[in-house]
## 1
Amino acid sequence: MGKVCVCGAGALQIDYAAKTLTASGQTFKEGDFLSINGTLGNVYAGQLPTAASEIVQVLVEKTLDGKKSETYGLFATLMNWCSKVTRMQVRANADTPEQTETALAFAPRASA
């Protein structure tokens, strides 16, 4: 729980004895920061700044107006279509109170 998982990272070479990890020709020692783009599979030295998706910004963080986000609008349209044809009512797993709050934020809404 609460741990990041990167699946299919076959290009990473981990030397447990030396406590190093080699990726993209760079070797990192235990304690070094590295950032992994899970979509592209790219590995970067250091900590890269990150931001929540626009969908999370609208539903969970409430820092973005959904009417101003094309990405959220597309998501809302897709979820509305899904809610019209689905019979399953469970869409999330939640192991912590924070995950429960996030799951509830993503709960289907009545369409206008």
## 2
Amino acid sequence: MRYHAIVSGTERLVVVTARGSSYRVAIHPGPTESRDAPPRILEVDAVHLRAGSLSLLADGRSGRCDIESDAEGRFRVLLGDELHTFELLDDRRHRMHRAGGKFSLEGPQRIDAPMPGKIVRVLVKQGDTVAEGQGLVVVEAMKMENELKSPKAGVVRELLAQEGQPVEAGAKLVVVA
């Protein structure tokens, strides 16, 4: 799955690939670095400890990681004694971010699985009226639970997600119109 990480105003492309029970994370150079520089590659194994807490093993180093996030994709990560803050945007949110919020979402909006995982909770039913930012489906991926939220106020027109169902990256889960 492709993400755009924004740390202290600097944007980097981050590509996450599932490899069995671990993940390959490629962090591409930022705009102030040489475009010819190869991406930094991390092999990561993550074990979910409790809500928002992980035990990580990355490139032979281990540590505990506590994560808080909000509906806009902003994260606060406590890794050891260091606090890191950043935004993590999928391609759709990245396009909206670059547009500077100069438009609102119109028409049906499709909510897809951000990466391979399993549906652990479905929070709405087909026909429900939802608010922008309201949780729709919870997907467990990378041993973390990710609540997928409605990108706009509207009505759940399609609901394809079922609890316990495995999903591939990009699988259509919900349509809000």
